[in-house]
């Protein structure tokens, strides 16, 4: 006979997550993410946690700020891909039943093209109830870093040029960020009549050979 359970309690753990959960950033650019716990039924006396990146080298935490209730706080490992955060609610501002509590705000920098999970490690949250440890359910975030293409470009036919030239040679220099791959380039040449164009590139970093259109 199947077992029947009655009057049992469903346990839900407070969720610690990144808000927003995903961000995109250009290489060498920065963005912010909040560390948020969704509900604290017994209040908050303090916390300590580590933030790390699944793929090392993709991003770093370069700054941390804390909310006003966290007057006593500490950060170690900046800048880096493993950072330790801690704070104490000395004035008991975060009371029992408070929801959507920001624990800290991270400033994250994109270091190299790619994607990486941003993870919580060693999360310890203590309640106002005699400093008892609250079991939490951490939810990871993620980031993507992309490279931009920039070119110092100029092409001018001089006044002494007589008649159509084929090919018309254009020289310019790549100024890329984060070593983009050759497939990142797309050429768009505006012309209303069929003509031959040859584009010659002088890269500042090894990228690709001359392309023609």
TrEMBL record:
Protein name: Cohesin domain-containing protein
Residue ranges with Polar residues bias: 202-213
Region span, Disordered: 194-213
Organism in which the protein naturally occurs: Methanocella conradii (strain DSM 24694 / JCM 17849 / CGMCC 1.5162 / HZ254)
């Amino acid at each position: 006979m199947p077992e029947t359970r009655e009057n049992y309690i469903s346990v839900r753990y407070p969720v610690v997550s990144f808000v927003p959960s995903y961000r995109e950033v250009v290489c060498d650019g920065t963005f912010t993410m909040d560390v948020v716990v969704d509900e604290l039924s017994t209040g908050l006396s303090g916390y300590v946690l580590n933030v790390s990146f699944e793929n090392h080298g993709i991003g770093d935490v370069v700054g941390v700020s804390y909310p006003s209730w966290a007057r006593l706080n500490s950060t170690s490992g900046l800048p880096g891909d493993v950072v330790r955060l801690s704070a104490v609610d000395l004035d008991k501002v975060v009371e029992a039943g408070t929801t959507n509590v920001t624990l800290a705000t991270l400033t994250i920098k994109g270091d190299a093209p790619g994607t990486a999970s941003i993870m919580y490690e060693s999360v310890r949250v203590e309640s106002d109830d005699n400093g008892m440890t609250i079991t939490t359910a951490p939810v990871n975030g993620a980031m993507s870093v992309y490279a931009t293409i920039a070119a110092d470009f100029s092409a001018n036919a001089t006044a002494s040029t007589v008649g159509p030239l084929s090919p018309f040679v254009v020289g310019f220099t790549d100024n890329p960020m984060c070593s983009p791959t050759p497939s990142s380039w797309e050429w768009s040449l505006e012309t209303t009549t069929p003509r031959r164009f040859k584009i010659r590139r002088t890269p500042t970093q090894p990228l690709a050979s001359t392309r023609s259109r």
